[in-house]
Amino acid sequence: MKNGRKITGGKYSNKMRKKKSYERQGQKRIIKIADDKRKTIKVRGGKFKVILLSGKSINVLAKGKTQKTEIKNVIETPSNRFLARQNVMTKGAIVDTGLGKVRITNRPTQEGIINGVLIE
Fold it and tell me: What's the whole-model pTM score?
């Protein structure tokens, strides 16, 4: 039998090693409805990422045209119903706008803007 292996041939995981800096998780970001607030952070490879901290406008795709409108309220969030009560915007959340109900189609924490598609 080989040393450091299971009987099936699989490796034992190494619990002694700490996480490398590129393996660590980033800080959890929550996007609420307020005036637009963005932050630029440095990421791996010397590049920069613009993240959204709060926002109140959304780019809505409706009938082949994109329109910018204001967000009134978060109606529901499929990942966690408690996030909708706190007006936290995530991917897949359904928000109420001037045009109607809109589903958020992107990850605002990663891109710095909020995009959505009209549902009705």
Answer: 0.77
Q: What is the pLDDT of residues 18-65, one digit of tens each?
A: 888 888 887 888 999 999 999 998 888 999 999 999 999 999 999 899
- In the structure encoding, which two tokens stand for residue 4, read together? 């450091």
Domains defined along the chain, listed by start = 32-118 (3.10.290.70)
> By the 8 A CB rule, do 85 and 95 touch?
no
Task: Tell me the C-alpha distance between 25 and 102, whole Å.
Answer: 30
- Residue 50 tokens read as 């613009």
Please tell me whether residue 65 adopts helix, strand or coil conformation: strand
DSSP for residue 5: B
Tell me the backbone φ, ψ of residue 68, rounded to 5 degrees. -95, 130
User: Which structure tokens are listed for 74?
Assistant: 């978060």
Neighbour order of strands in the sheet with 37-42: 32-33, 48-55, 37-42
How far is 115 from 18, CA to CA, in rounded Å? Answer: 38
CB 33 within 8 A of CB 56: yes
